[in-house]
User: What shape does this take?
Amino acid sequence: MTLQEVPPASGVRRKRLIALSAAASSLAMLGLSFAAVPLYRAYCAATGYGGTPQVAKLAPASEGERDLIVRFDANVGPGLAWTFVPETPEIKLRTGKTATIFYKITNMSDQATLARAAFNVSPESAGAYFDKIACFCFKDQKLGPRETLELPVVFFLDPELEKDATMVGVETITLSYTLYAAKPPTQDTVAAKEKPL
Assistant: This one.
């Protein structure tokens, strides 16, 4: 049976099916576009892709055999009147050993401001092995006028990096933070967080 021989009712049904399929595909693509950013962040956090450090609850039970230099970098985004520096520019660290370093931030303005840190590790291949146990980057930081804080970062380098061929020639890893101005929460967002589920 050719298309010309299809009865008119079947032709209408076919056009509806095609229209419904196109609409469903469009809605699915729209949904995926909204989910892309959170899914990408989750993927980076799980794999270390793009230099994203891992989050750990405990340090490994034993140390590895390699010592690496870990450098610390601090930057302030536009529009934020803060200073931000690591108190120690670099350390030598054995894989599997936990280290604590501090960053110092100062609000140089005459008003209270809020900021949030974005972070990454370079080279990117090291992100999968850079594990943070505690970090100020997981929440907004609020400083009053001229206030100064020292913020800790507790981390270790996973000894598994010693088995990764891409890490063989790596002698130095850099942990880099950038502070960006954040907006204070509105009454609606505060009420939504406090509302019981």
In short: The beta strands are 54-55, 67-76, 82-86, 90-94, 99-107, 113-122, 130-135, 141-143, 148-157, 172-181.
